[in-house]
Amino acid sequence: MPRTLPDIPLRPATLLVRGGQNRSSFDEMSEALHLTSGFMYESAGQAEDTFLGKAQHFQYSRFGNPTIEALQNKLAALEGAEACRVTASGMAAVHAAMLSHLKAGDRVVASRALFGSCHWIVSTLLPRYGIETVFVDGADLDAWRDAFRTPTQMVLLETPSNPMLDIVDLRAVCDLAHAAGAVVVVDNVFATPLLQRPMEFGADVVVYSATKHFDGQGRVLGGAVLGSKAWVNDVLQPFIRNTGPSISPFNAWVILKGLETLHLRVPAMCANAERVADFLDARPEVVRALYPFRPSHPQEALARRQMTAGGTLVTFDVGSKENAFAVLDGLRLVDISNNLGDARSMVTHPATTTHMKVGAEERARLGITDGTIRLSVGLEDVADVIEDLSQALDRIARPAHRQAAE
Fold it and tell me: If you average pLDDT over residues 72-80, what whole number do you get?
């Protein structure tokens, strides 16, 4: 008979390697990949009892699957959450977390600094269903207080934000939101549960794009929603079951394999990102370089209170779209891609990719200029990444303000 995990608290690295195991009767070492759409019953009565909820039995892979369940159990243990449901993508996770809970007449308050598709859900989709939405500057606690003078059903925020790495005071916002009656949903994709655990600061629901660091090698799409057992079972699960944003067993299995090395990859990528940020800040062509754990970041102290490391992303500004494109096109090692959290370093130009559709006015409010570049730092030798950035930056002129300062 295979061993089971000891009933004692286990550290993240151990949970990532051994957590969520769901072995079949064959006692396989690696989690089994259950590629099946449906499941069989021993009798008509068992099928009836399964649908009535009297018997525990898998019904259909849209509702549940042994491989998918293993991933959910591993992520819940890692996050310190009571329950988890995984979805086909990160945006399916955000959409399910919000639409499962909200109804016409409800009110949502969101931090302005959101990923482009999340911003679209709040600004465009929710109002179509009669849901009021309000954006606030995530760093401005007075703005949050003003927004919560009206009863609110849900809050959506991300910290650090995409792409400007803004930090939201989780404890303060959660306290304010709960006083207004709101459920707080935190997109924690940039930090991962290794660097930040929002529920420890009061968050009710945490969402991820598992496509990013969890897989970490650019292979498959996936998402995750974590929360209390009552909320997941009573609110989220009926929505997922009946609307179908389900992940494939194969994708769940690939993400399970990726998670086994998350505790090795993320710290190494963070160390590389910090060195890249130091390099970029010293370059005369760079207007500014943002990294949460650097003194030049306006919210460094808050980032250090909430996070154990600064993350794998660096954002920098080279003054203009022309300069940004010259840098991106001049890179020989780092790839141009709108993905992030990968073993490979990659860059994107947010104004023309991830945040194109939020509009120029909203980008200006977010601090996203035509010269802004988002860099996801990978696992290459950081000296090679820095050399590649250096030769690409050599192609552009120093901004006027840097020339004057010199």
Answer: 96
